[in-house]
Amino acid sequence: MLTFILQRLLQSVLVILTVALIAFSLFRYVGDPVNAMTGQDTTLQQREELRERLGLNDPFLVQYGRFVADAAQGEFGISYRHRRPVRELLAERLPATLELSIVSMALALLLGIPMGVYTALKPKGLLSRGFMSLSLIGVSLPTFLIGILLILLFGVVLRWLPTFGRGEVVDVGGWTTGLLTKSGLQSLILPAFTLALFQMTLIMRLVRSEMLEVLRTDFIKFCHARGLPSRLVHFRHALKNTLVPVITITGLQLGSIIAFAIITESVFQWPGMGLLFIQAITTVDIPVMAAYLCMVAFFFVAINLVVDLLYFAVDPRLRTRRAA
């Protein structure tokens, strides 16, 4: 187990360093920090002095090493657009993105797993067919279109829910959350469901296919032959074996939600990191873009590391194969 953890940690470090190299290349090849920080009246001598002070004349490896060391401490420089430290901008926007992502994934799991189990146990039922039709809609329609349709129905026609913003938030130990206010909860419903719909249908279809496969195995037939109650067989034996691949997919999708919540945040004007990244692209705000890439890579690596460890702990076949 220790060897497995060390291998995964080494792979994670290599991935982080590779993404940091890509983010650092933005500073070197996409834009010139000196041009972004100076005006037209700045002389060539002043530009050269600023370049020397920023260390831009140092060798490539020296600059890259300095960038990695600063990034490890959360330092990504000053935003060209906001004229503020990027670390402060991320600290303000990160709670909104994580809150939206976690609520969306929890909603997808709470709905997707029961729907997948039901459609597997009663594949010809009318409700199962309705769930499968809903899953086709969730997979086929793009996220931005789902968000626009929800805004049109619940925000414009019915006027039940707000259509933009995060609502009222409270500060809890330096962490802002809207889960403790009525307007915050109302503002979270539409973007969370929009982001969760595709994940919910994916989890439902995965659970259904895995459940059908497990129900055909010999040990499930043996459990029925022993006279065990169907509820015990389905939810203790079959579902337990079904959830092994679901853990992996859930971890990967959680990373995807955090990374690709850009569209949902743009549609609902949700003040998270995705909206900040879109604004940074339009203004070529290199420090914010580099920080976003490093932040997303860190979340992906951390979540995948946890998923690998859970997968290794849950599935005894991996431990047996590793021992052999």
Into which percent range does the helicity of residues fall? over 70%
DSSP helical segment count? 14
Main pleated sheet: 2 strands, antiparallel
Number of strands: 2
CA radius of gyration: 24 Å
Order of helices and strands: HHHHHHHEEHHHHHHH
Low-confidence stretches: none
- Mean residue pLDDT: 81
Separation, N- and C-terminal Cα atoms: 13 Å
Spatially, the strands of the biggest sheet line up as 1-2
What form results from the Cα inertia axes?
A: globular
Strand % is under 5%
Helix-strand makeup class: mainly alpha
Concise overview:
This protein is mainly alpha-helical and 324 residues long. 77% of the residues lie in helices and 2% in strands.
Descriptive keywords:
324 residues, 2 strands, mainly alpha, 2% strand, two-stranded antiparallel sheet, 14 helices
Please, could you describe this protein's structure?
The protein is mainly α. It has helices spanning about 1-30, 35, 45-55, 60-70, 85-120, 125-140, 145-155, 180-215, 220-225, 230-260, 260-265, 275-280, 285-315, 315-324; strands spanning about 170, 175. A two-stranded antiparallel sheet has the order 1-2.
Task: Break the fold down into its secondary structure elements and pairings.
Layout: H1 2-30, H2 33-37, H3 44-53, H4 60-72, H5 86-121, H6 126-140, H7 143-157, E1 170-172, E2 175-177, H8 182-215, H9 218-225, H10 230-259, H11 262-267, H12 273-282, H13 286-314, H14 316-323
Antiparallel strand pairs: 1-2
Helix pairs in contact: 1-4, 1-13, 5-6, 5-8, 5-10, 6-8, 7-8, 8-10, 10-13, 12-13, 13-14
